[in-house]
Amino acid sequence: MPIIDVELVVPEPYEIEPTLASALADALGKVFGSAPGRTWVKVRYLQASCYAENETTVAMAELPVFVTILLAHPPSGDSLTTQMLAVTHCVANACRRRPEQVHVTYAPAGAGRQAFGGSMV
Fold first, then answer.
1. Residue 79: which H helix or E strand, with range?
2. What is the CA 77 to chain-centroid distance, rounded?
3. 19-63 residue pLDDT tens
4. Residue 119 DSSP one-character state
5. Domains identified in the chain, total number
6. What is the pTM (predicted TM-score) of this model?
7. Is the CB of residue 72 less than 8 Å from the CB of residue 107?
8. Per-residue CA distances from 56 to 3, 53, 64, 102, 104 (Å)
9. Cα dist. 82→11, 88, 97, 110 in Å?
10. Which residues pair with 41 in a beta bridge?
11. What are phi and psi of 45, to 5 degrees?
């Protein structure tokens, strides 16, 4: 069961997109080949004033999106590269950002350290 955290750095003020989480869950569910209800997506917004890069100013059009993926068993090698590219393009499309603005991190394998409702996976 993929758990995906998506954090968008947004300009101020920003009108929250009410369907973004469900659009991301549906699209990412296809990337991961998940059955309905098996891909979980959490979306957070971070105001641009709470984001910085050292010794530079980030233009509003360049604000990033950070994605963290937790899988029981993350892929490796070419499979990881293929999946990461698919996630990047999926998130970029849904968030209306360029793929260069989407930064993906895979968390360590969740198997043996993730519990759902008190049951270890």
1. helix 77-95
2. 20
3. 999 999 999 999 999 999 999 999 999 999 999 999 999 999 999
4. E
5. 1
6. 0.94
7. no
8. 32, 6, 14, 19, 22
9. 31, 10, 20, 20
10. 4
11. -115, 135
